[in-house]
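dude i think i finally got it to work??
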Amino acid sequence: MPVKGERRSVTANARRAQILSATIETIAELGYGQASFARIAERAGLSSTRLISYHFAGKDELIQALIADVYAEMAAFMGERMAGCTDARSALSTYIRSVVAFIAAHPMQMQALMSVFLDYRSEDGGRSYDAGSERDVLGHVQEVLRAGQRSGEFRRFDTFVMAATIQRSIDGLPFLLRTAPELDLEAYAEELAELFDRATRSEG
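look at this
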């Protein structure tokens, strides 16, 4: 039988998830600049913004929690699909297909994240996506490319340029979906995977 503290923890976690979900929906629909605590509380069906402040010290903490939750979900999604890759070519194509699949399955989260990346500034003026974030993302793709070059699967090329080109072709997808919402994302992923397989693979 759970103790009172455990029940409170379950309730607190559920309320936190409710607030984060409402924050994502509000930002995705209205944009980061219009996502006030009042609007988030209204969407979440909360009686007062104090219920948000109880779980998050301020908007900075709320936004950082939102980013962390989306990234954690994406990491789990990607990790499950990347686990079976045994060579660099399959790892690269699986990475591309998996990121596009995540975007397709989580359109609201991605629209909210895009708005946050474009417009959010912390109290000290910092951005949610900075040079360190960029290095982390590109570093992962570069390591796949370097592994393929070491194994002879990939030709010689500048891994930074190739990683940046691959990542930008994926990062731009949420923007593209605003003007082409009917885009076939499965076909898009297949075209990208084929394009970069041809661009990177060794002819030997």
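The chain is about 75% helix and 0% strand.
im so relieved honestly
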